[in-house]
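Tip: read the tokens left to right.
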């Protein structure tokens, strides 16, 4: 009987239903919406008038992760084995997510097309309840399996943090902190660790992610500050937004104190309490790495004459007591920021920072010499100590430990050769001549330098060079690691088209590789290993040795890398190389949100530069034309027409999608699909017309916005083609139409 009813009659009946009803037509693998009732449009947030205008674009509203389920359901319906049920997520006109429970049946099949009838309900509230139940179940299960630790549950909607403590008998206690984030931002961001916790939670609230934070705080117990390690996981609700952040909290206070004690003992001389030789060298090189020509530092090398003879005569214990007295007197004359070290039995080093001028050295050097003067006994049995002090200066006589130490030693030896004590500055006359001219030079540089020029601007100037240059690339690495506080950097790219791979390294002075080895082979082995353990999926910052595979932990420990940054480099959708950057001083190294965006942007610029020559050979430009669009208030990307490779994305695009991967396939990194988009705008351009253009309105589920997309050729010739897609956000205009 139903088959005797025409579509119009059926549609009139369906308009009075609260559920959503739609007819879909499938003809030659092309899907189109034939009809949707008012209830269906209402669930999607549209009026029928506006909804019908975009009826055949409604498939684009399905969340990318659920589209495979949708197409599989279509295939199952066409088998005509009965009703097919499906649950999937769609994006409403306001940008929120809505769960739909759908039942589909094959309504009619003709030689031309198949018609599918779909009835659907809003399942969002039910999914919310299921999600909350599952979250609580997983949380309590974790709690029951965790002994001697705490679990935290932060409710993003109510701003309430619950901290539960577990014991072998089950739940022990619960602590509730109301208005947690408000209090944390107001009262508890006075340390680096607590500021890092605030940033971590704020990032976790944006999208589901996992993080590990170590901090010293009293928010867990309300009493003394203790060290904790917090593993956090944010959980999204059915609307796609984060509703909870759950975490496991481990008290690591005693272990942290022990580590700090051991680390301090490893760096300090047991007699004087000053740094030992290795630690002194590391500290000095670290300061030099962040210094420029405007800083003047004094490298003061102290040789205590006849100290070894005295120590042998009076005994080691007495010698140590005397040395301790000498260094104690010296310490009083220097700033806390100065580096004081014992580098051998009778040699000391003091690195005096920012002394201003060589003329200020006289008082310091005289005080050091006076501190070493000591007379023991009298007459023939008496013994006199005195110091020979050699001084070199940064930047005039070197920019690393080796150069400054060598010249300070020469200054000491010049005193020994003349049988003198006191102090001597290496090449003092030359320094005074340089200093006289230096003030004029620095003033001129300040007048000529653009004060607004940042690291990215400097790199852009390098990128605009006509030819690729390895020295320039290495210089970029140097600028990046110094800017962000790393000590080691490596850029490794596999060879393509029969070309050799590119391997560039840069080490800050004092952190050079100790052993000779084949760097290229070693890095390629690590790239393969990181691929295998799936650590090259995107931007990674690794702090904790316990949370990485044993091989990687061993590599970091062996190379004294405390923080490792990993950024894959991609070409034609495949991982072809990697940036590796290491922090080796042992300090807590973190990036805030803006710094992370800046670093990702800079690494993209370097990758574009490294791949520039290859792109020219493949028919792509050097992307200078596209980079003119970098400051546009629209989403811009450049895509290789033949390979779908994402060649470029502007600042606005990278800011909105920070995990976008240059070099990956555009449909994978941008749309989250494993195949090209069904309605690819790029493929609607005429390959035979270099002036071809195409525009259409399109919904982007990754940006959750309606876009007006303009496609055109950036380059189109016999060697290849690159398309530029410029997308303007029209959501506000679109929503305005809906509410008219």
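Filled-in amino acids:
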């Amino acid at each position: 009987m139903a088959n005797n009813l025409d579509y119009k009659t059926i549609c009139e009946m369906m308009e009075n239903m609260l559920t959503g009803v739609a007819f879909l037509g499938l003809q030659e693998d092309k899907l189109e919406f034939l009809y949707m009732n008012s209830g269906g449009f209402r669930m999607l947030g549209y009026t029928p008038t506006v909804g019908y205008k975009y009826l055949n674009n409604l498939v684009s509203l399905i969340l990318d992760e659920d589209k495979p389920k949708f197409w599989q359901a279509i295939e199952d319906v066409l088998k005509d084995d009965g009703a097919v049920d499906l649950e999937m997520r769609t994006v409403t006109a306001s940008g929120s997510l809505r769960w739909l429970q759908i039942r589909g049946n094959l309504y009619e099949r003709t030689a031309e097309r198949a018609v599918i009838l779909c009835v659907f309900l809003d399942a969002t509230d039910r999914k919310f309840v299921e999600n909350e139940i599952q979250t609580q179940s997983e949380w309590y299960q974790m709690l029951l399996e965790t002994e001697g630790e705490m679990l935290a549950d932060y409710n993003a909607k109510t701003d309430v943090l619950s901290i539960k403590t577990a014991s072998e008998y089950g739940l022990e206690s619960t602590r509730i902190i109301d208005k947690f984030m408000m209090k944390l931002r107001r009262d508890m961001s006075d340390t680096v660790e607590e500021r890092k916790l605030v940033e971590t939670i704020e990032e976790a609230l944006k999208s589901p992610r996992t993080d590990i934070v170590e901090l010293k705080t009293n928010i867990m117990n309300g009493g003394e500050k203790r060290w904790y390690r917090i593993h956090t996981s944010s959980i999204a609700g059915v609307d796609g937004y984060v509703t909870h952040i759950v975490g496991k909290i481990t008290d690591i206070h005693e272990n942290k104190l022990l580590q700090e004690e051991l680390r301090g003992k490893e760096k300090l001389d047991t007699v004087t309490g000053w740094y030992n030789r290795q630690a002194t060298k590391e500290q000095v090189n670290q300061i030099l790495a962040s210094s420029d020509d405007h800083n003047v530092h004094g490298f003061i090398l102290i040789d205590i004459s006849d100290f070894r003879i005295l120590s042998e005569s009076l005994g080691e214990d007495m010698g140590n007591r005397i040395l301790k007295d000498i260094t104690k007197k010296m310490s009083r004359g220097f700033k806390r920021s100065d580096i004081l070290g014992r580098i051998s039995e009778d040699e000391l080093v003091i690195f005096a920072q920012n002394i201003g001028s060589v003329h200020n050295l006289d008082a310091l050097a005289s005080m050091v010499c006076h501190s070493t003067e000591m007379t023991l006994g009298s007459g023939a049995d008496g013994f006199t100590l005195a110091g020979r002090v050699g001084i070199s200066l940064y930047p005039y006589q070197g920019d690393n430990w080796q150069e400054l130490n060598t010249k300070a030693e020469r200054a000491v030896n010049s005193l020994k050769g003349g049988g003198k004590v006191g102090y001597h500055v290496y090449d003092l006359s030359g320094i005074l001549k340089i200093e006289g001219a230096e003030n004029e030079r620095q003033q001129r540089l300040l007048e000529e330098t653009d004060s607004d020029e940042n690291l990215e601007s400097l790199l852009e100037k390098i990128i605009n060079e006509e030819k690729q240059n390895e020295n320039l690339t290495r210089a970029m690495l140097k600028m990046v690691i110094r800017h962000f506080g790393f000590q080691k950097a490596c850029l490794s790219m596999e060879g393509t088209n029969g070309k050799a791979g590119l391997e560039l390294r840069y080490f800050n002075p004092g952190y050079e590789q100790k052993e000779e080895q084949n760097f290229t082979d070693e890095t390629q082995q690590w790239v393969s290993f990181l691929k295998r353990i799936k650590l090259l999926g995107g931007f990674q910052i690794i702090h904790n040795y316990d949370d990485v595979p044993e091989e990687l932990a061993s590599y970091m420990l062996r190379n004294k890398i405390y923080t490792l940054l990993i950024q894959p480099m991609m070409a034609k959708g495949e991982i072809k190389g990697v940036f590796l950057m290491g922090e080796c001083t042992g300090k807590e190294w973190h990036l805030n949100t803006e710094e992370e965006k800046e670093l990702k942007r800079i690494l993209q610029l370097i990758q574009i530069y490294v791949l520039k020559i290859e792109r020219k050979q493949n028919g792509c430009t050097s992307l200078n034309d596209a980079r003119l669009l970098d400051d546009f208030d629209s989403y811009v990307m450049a895509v290789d027409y033949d390979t779908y490779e994402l060649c470029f994305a502007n600042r606005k695009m990278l800011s909105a999608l920070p995990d976008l991967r240059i070099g990956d396939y555009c449909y994978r990194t941008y749309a989250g699909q494993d195949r090209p988009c069904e309605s690819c705008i790029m493929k609607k351009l005429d390959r035979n017309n270099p002036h071809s253009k195409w525009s259409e309105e399109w919904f982007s589920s990754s940006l959750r916005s309606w876009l007006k997309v303009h496609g055109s050729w950036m380059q189109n010739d016999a060697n290849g083609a690159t398309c530029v897609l410029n997308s303007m956000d029209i959501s506000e205009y679109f929503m305005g139409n809906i509410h008219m």
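Confidence is low (pLDDT under 50) at residues 436-453, 613-623, 735-740. The longest helix spans residues 124-144.
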